[in-house]
Predict the structure.
Amino acid sequence: MNTLNELLVHELKDLYDAEHQLTKALPKMIDATKSSELKTAFKDHLKETQTHIERLELVFEQLGEKPARTTCDGMKGLLKEGEKILEEEMDPVVRDAALIGAAQRVEHYEMAGYGTARTFAMVLGHHDAAHLLQQTLDNEEVTDKKLSGIANKINTNAIAE
């Protein structure tokens, strides 16, 4: 990569792969969750993730690029850690607390990626693309706050277990 634009496209490919990986992981998390509130939050985020993929496809189009994926090793690692939670024998409430922690690590990773890509797009004058990336960043921040609220209840319940 020799230009900031090439770096932006690389970041978009990485995010595109991360979102696709997440669409495969979320159904497993939904199935493993005891809390109906957390289950709903994960289901909502799965729908949002589809929207994030569609937005990325629009960004690629705006930049004159074909949507493509570059393996996102960061997301792969985060999801692998989450898989370990699913394999462990745990009290269901404690498992929910662990799943929230894993999900929030994913959210923070995505927020960093979308913030970086948005900034590159802004600097390069791709304002429409930057706006779309900011919308997704906003979604990720809302999801993180929602998970924190659910965590407050679940963590309190997990203490009692």
Summary: The two ends are 52 Å apart (CA to CA). The CA atoms of residues 91 and 161 lie 8 Å apart. The longest helix spans residues 127-160. The chain is about 85% helix and 0% strand.
